[in-house]
Write a structure and sequence with these properties.
A 9-stranded mixed beta sheet has the order 6-5-4-7-8-9-10-11-12. A 3-stranded mixed beta sheet has the order 1-3-2. The mean pLDDT is 87. It folds into 2 domains: 68 residues, Roll (Ubiquitin-like (UB roll)); 132 residues, Cell division protein FtsQ/DivIB (Rossmann fold), CATH 3.40.50.11690. It is elongated. It is α/β, with parallel strands linked by helices. The chain is 31% helix and 25% strand. A hairpin with a 4-residue loop joins strand 2 and strand 3.
Length: 241
């Protein structure tokens, strides 16, 4: 007896459903695909990474079903750590390995908070607490961010300046000697331009984009090739010495 087309379709659909169920079972419940190894790369602070994942109940375990490891939630959890710039997590079905990779923030300056704790700034002006061995190296040689009032607000002012700094002025941070914030909220920077020590008074964080443009225009003038001080507190009337 010939099987009708509609019945063939039902049989095919049932067959595909059975295959799907078997596949789902193999991935989710079978001991065939379980975690054999967990690697954490990109940092020496592995215990801090594991502690965060344990706290969030996301830490993968050897013997756990690979399909049940929530790699996306692991990535999001680690991004809550201020010293981590980016994170990725993946599962390898062949090696049955979970690989977690983090990219640490790189400090370019340091500061003491009002609570007398050490924090770092990265090149984007992000404030974080150094944790890893790499981040803790050479702390004494990092430029010091100082403030008349060591408040988070004043540290945030410095962070904003560093974050908004145009790419063609990045060398001001690379050559940074010191940066401070006065009681009035004025930013004072000691850095180098063309190998010369230069002190820049940025004034307040207001109109900072205009001040960037004014500084670039001033530095392009031949007569300013060996300047030692620039006052940009009034960007429409800058003072150069």
């Amino acid at each position: 007896m010939e099987i009708s087309k509609s019945r063939k379709k039902r049989i095919s659909a049932l067959f595909l459903f059975v295959i799907f169920v078997m596949f789902a079972y193999t991935l989710g419940w079978s001991a065939l695909f379980t975690v054999k190894q967990i690697d954490v790369n990109g940092t020496t602070a592995i215990s801090e990474v594991n502690q965060k994942l344990v706290l969030d109940e996301l830490a993968p375990q050897v013997g756990q079903k690979l399909a049940r490891v929530d790699v996306r939630s692991i990535e999001n959890s680690l991004m809550e750590l201020d010293w981590i710039k980016s994170s990725s997590a993946s599962r390898d079905w062949l090696s049955k390995k979970i690989q977690i990779t983090v990219l640490e923030r790189v400090p370019v300056a340091r500061a003491l908070t009002a609570q007398n704790t050490l924090v770092n700034f990265d090149s984007e002006g992000f404030i974080f607490t150094p944790v890893s061995t790499e981040q803790g190296k050479n702390q004494s040689s990092l430029p010091l961010v100082s403030a008349a009032i060591a408040s988070n607000k004043n540290l945030a002012i410095v962070a904003t300046l560093m974050r908004k700094l145009p790419k063609d002025l990045d060398y001001l941070v690379d050559k940074l000697d010191q940066i401070s914030v006065t009681k009035a909220g004025y930013i004072l920077m000691s850095t180098q331009v063309n190998g010369n020590a230069v002190r820049i008074n940025w004034g307040s964080i207001e109109q900072i984009e205009q001040k960037f443009q004014v500084l670039k225009a001033l530095l392009e003038l031949p007569e300013n090739g060996s300047i030692s001080e620039v006052d940009l507190s009034e960007p429409n009337a800058p003072i150069v010495k």
